[in-house]
Specification:
By secondary structure, the protein is mostly beta strands. The chain has no helices and eleven strands. A hairpin with a 4-residue loop joins strand 7 (68-73) and strand 8 (78-83). It is globular and about 40 Å long.
């Protein structure tokens, strides 16, 4: 069992930056592929970014490529999402998720993830 707790959300102006963190419990965090999803008001939750358990492989939603960076620190059981050049359309609740035994790459769908955090609100004002 893995528990995920996101932090770092908040209110930022267009063009600003935020760094989200996701702290995970569990001794085998280093073996989990991790992902970030988001859900805007009135919309379905969507994939944002994912990182493989070993760290070198990453994959992004097209609209965030070049602006967002996913990374992880396995020693601290934490995954990060650095968000730069934020746009109003990035406003959403951001969720961290984990896959216990990934069988494919990249994993872009909610049903592929085993564990979820409670979410953190990101609001980008224009």
């Amino acid at each position: 069992q893995v528990q995920l707790v996101e932090s770092g959300g908040g209110l930022v102006q267009v063009g600003g930056s935020l760094r989200l963190s996701c702290a995970a419990s569990g001794r085998t965090f280093s073996r989990y592929d991790m992902g970030w999803f988001r859900q805007a008001p009135g919309k379905e939750r969507e994939f944002v970014a994912t990182i493989s358990w070993s760290g070198p492989n990453t994959y992004y939603k097209d609209s965030v490529k070049g602006r967002f960076t996913i990374s992880r620190d396995n020693a601290k059981n934490t995954v990060f999402l650095q968000m730069n050049s934020l746009k109003a359309e990035d406003t959403a609740v951001y969720y961290c998720a984990a896959i216990e035994n990934a069988r494919s790459w990249p994993n872009l769908h909610e049903y592929e993830y085993d564990y979820w955090g409670q979410g953190t609100q990101v609001t980008v004002s224009s």
